[in-house]
Amino acid sequence: MNFSRRLVLVLILVAMIGCRRTSSEEERAPRIEPGRALHNRSVVPAVTLARVEQAAGRWPEAAAAWTRAMQSNETIVALINRAICYRHLHNWETALADLHRAEHLAPQDPLVWQQAVLFDRLGKFLAEVRELDKDLAALPNDAELLTDRALLFLRAEDAALALDDATKAAQLAPTAVRPQLFRALAERALSPTAEPASSAVNSTLRLEALSPEFLETIRRLDAEITAEPGSADLRTNRAWQLNEIGQPQLALADAESALQSDPKSAGACAEASYALEKLKREPEAYEQIKRATELDPNFSTAWQYRGELEMRRADYPGAIDSLTQALAINQTVAALAKREECYRKLGLLAKAENDHKALEQFGATR
Fold first, then answer.
1. Residue 220's closest CA among 232, 237, 205, 208?
2. Nearest-5° angle of CA 212, CA 215, CA 220?
3. CA distance 321 to 295
4. What are phi and psi of 69, to 5 degrees?
5. How many other C-beta atoms lie within 10 A of the C-beta of residue 307?
6. pLDDT in the model for residue 197
7. Strands (DSSP E) along the chain, which ranges?
8. CA distances from 175 to 229, 270, 306 (A)
9. E strand or H helix that includes residue 284
10. Measured between alpha carbons, how far is 181 from 172 in angstroms, rounded to an integer?
11. Which domains occur in the chain, in start order?
12. Which of 75, 127, 275, 363 has the highest Cβ tally under 10 A?
């Protein structure tokens, strides 16, 4: 056999040995790909599978995997994680049983203590939650009920469960704003520095700042808009509510929807203007409030706001005209004070003094 043929045979043999070595190494240390692991559960350690399922929000599968993991080794981590899964499934007694077992084994463990505090807070709202659980068992896709329950979880400071319900409600009722507000609050509680899914919600939103009156009103408006999504009046009313709580992007979306339904809605123009100003879009804000006064010359609030925007533009004569229009329709302290300020800016001190005296008389009669 000549040299070249021997060299070829040696190279082939080396390649075959290398392939066999690579194959045997993979058999000894199999790699589990996340996408394939769930289809071949027999090769995945129970704890690994439980974590994968839990991270994906597949709570029944995760609870079952933690149960299998504890057949050979009951650990605090497994007990607490299974309790978390049962909590997401609203299996309250089973979740508490796992927590109590963990407390018995390691009462000082930080993870156990954290979950105990969470359950204690939830306990104050559990009776109401159970009622909604029953209602949702009959109507699992009722967005209004899901949002009601999300609010209870937020009040209980259980952001994870609130996020479950608010996310599902937002998907079921895309025109409703309560789910968007509650989802943003839950996301911020879980991860204060992360970008929320609903970037339309202003980061200044706080649950404690939402009054019972606001929550009841927005709940009603959500339901009515779901039934009548093309109603300009309903959209304008909700835009006003959203502007009041400092949510200009959501308010602007409603105002724009109202104007699509009714291009001559002065109220929608005014709400759009308020929202645009908060979003630092002053020229557009001024155009919208100007249009509102043109559409409804008797809209005193719009005239007053137009005057305020004109003051910011240093258009004091224009502001005086607008504020005078507002005062002719409805005399208010704010409009008088603003007009007095404009007069002083222009050096019209006699007129400024007249407004000042009117303000004093106004205050004396209140």
1. 237
2. 125
3. 17
4. -65, -35
5. 28
6. 62
7. none
8. 7, 21, 30
9. helix 282-295
10. 15
11. 1-30 (no CATH), 32-123 (1.25.40.10), 297-366 (1.25.40.10)
12. 275
DSSP-based three-state secondary structure for 105? helix
**pLDDT, tens digit, 9 for 90 and up, residues 235-244:** 999 999 999 9
Task: Measure the N-to-C terminal CA separation of the chain; round to a whole number of Å.
Answer: 118
Q: Are 64 and 54 in contact (CB under 8 A)?
A: no
For 156, residues 6+ apart whose C-beta sits below 8 A from its C-beta are 121, 122, 124, 125
Residues 66, 170: Cα–Cα separation, whole Å: 30
| Average pLDDT of the chain, as a whole number | 88
User: Structure tokens of 230?
Assistant: 């093309």
> What pTM, to 2 d.p., does this model score?
0.82
Locate 334 and state its tokens.
Answer: 């704010």
Q: What CA–CA distances, in Å, run from 133 to 31, 84, 164?
A: 41, 17, 13
The amino acid occupying position 239 is: A
Written as six digits, the tokens of 95 are 């979740």
* Centroid of chain to Cα 111: 27
Closest to 179 (Cα-Cα) out of 157, 206, 201 = 201
Task: Please report which helix (H) or strand (E) contains residue 182, including its range.
Answer: helix 178-190
For residue 340 the two structure tokens come to: 């007095």
Residue 365 to residue 99: CA distance in whole angstroms: 64
Q: Residue 216: is its pLDDT beyond 90?
A: yes
Tokens representing residue 112 in the block: 């156990």
Specify the amino acid at residue 137: A
For 21, phi then psi, to 5°, come to -65, -45
Tokens 């049983």, residue located: 97
Measured distance CA(291)–CA(269) in Å, rounded: 7
Alpha carbon distance 331, 163 (integer Å): 46
pLDDT of 92 higher than 50: yes
Q: Check if the beta carbon of residue 230 is closer than 8 Å to that of residue 253.
A: no
